[in-house]
Design a protein that fits this description.
It is a single chain. With 182 residues, the protein is of the alpha/beta class. The protein has a single domain, classed as Rossmann fold (3-Layer(aba) Sandwich). 45% of the residues lie in helices and 12% in strands. The chain has 6 helices and 5 strands; from the N terminus they run βαβαβααβαβα. Helix 1 packs parallel to helix 2 and helix 1 packs across helix 6. The longest helix has 20 residues, at 90-109. It is globular and about 60 Å long. Bound molecules: iron/sulfur cluster. Iron/sulfur cluster (SF4) is lined by residues 40, 79, 87, 91-92, 95, 174-176, 178-179.
Length: 182
């Protein structure tokens, strides 16, 4: 009997450590493509460093990877007035939504049935706000947002273990220049 084809899912990934666990959770049910969309990472050398590790992970998992570095000027216009907000504050909520909107748009353009994000791996992120943002941006596209809680079943710990196993760089700050001072 022919094996049932898995639906295609575009997985927004914030970094390789979170992606290592998020992709592992989704790969059994979906045909996963990794989508590195975080042009707000600062400085440029850090963006390149995180991308290099993501490329390494894509090779280990044998998954396709899409890289998009567009839109940082728009992000700065949106986020700069909120530079003093704490992590998980209003700036971060807009940042989740901004990255997920681009993911949803890309998923739609390229015919993916689903999209999701690795952002819910981290206990430093507001999981409910991330999932609300995903559901909100999904209203404008045909692709469906997959609600996730990658923190459950010790997901964050698994991401640390996988990073050790594969030798993945783990950054010490979220990404944008405003998060460097936390
Ligand atoms: S701290 Fe992280 S989630 Fe918040 S605005 Fe900066 S990059 Fe985005």
């Amino acid at each position: 009997m022919a094996r049932k084809q898995k639906p295609r899912l575009l997985l927004h990934i914030c970094c390789a450590p979170c992606a290592s666990w998020a992709a592992k959770c989704l790969m059994s049910d979906y045909e996963v493509t990794l989508f590195f969309y975080n042009p707000n990472i600062w400085p440029q050398e850090e963006w390149s460093k995180r991308l290099a590790v993501v490329e390494k992970l894509a090779g280990i998992y044998n998954l396709p990877l899409i890289i998009d570095d567009s839109g940082v000027e728009d992000w700065l216009i949106m986020a700069s007035p909120l530079s003093q907000e704490p992590e998980q504050g209003r700036r971060c909520q807009l940042c989740y939504e901004w990255r997920l909107r681009q993911t949803a748009t890309r998923a739609d353009q390229e015919g993916y049935a689903y999209f999701a994000t690795s952002l819910t791996v981290s206990p430093y992120k507001d999981r409910e706000a991330i999932n609300q943002a995903g559901q909100l941006v999904a209203k404008a596209v045909k692709a469906n947002y997959v609600l996730t809680n990658f923190q459950e079943n010790n997901g964050y710990r698994h991401s640390i273990e996988l990073s050790r196993q594969y030798g993945l760089y783990r950054q010490k700050y979220c990404g944008c220049k405003f998060s460097l001072s936390y």
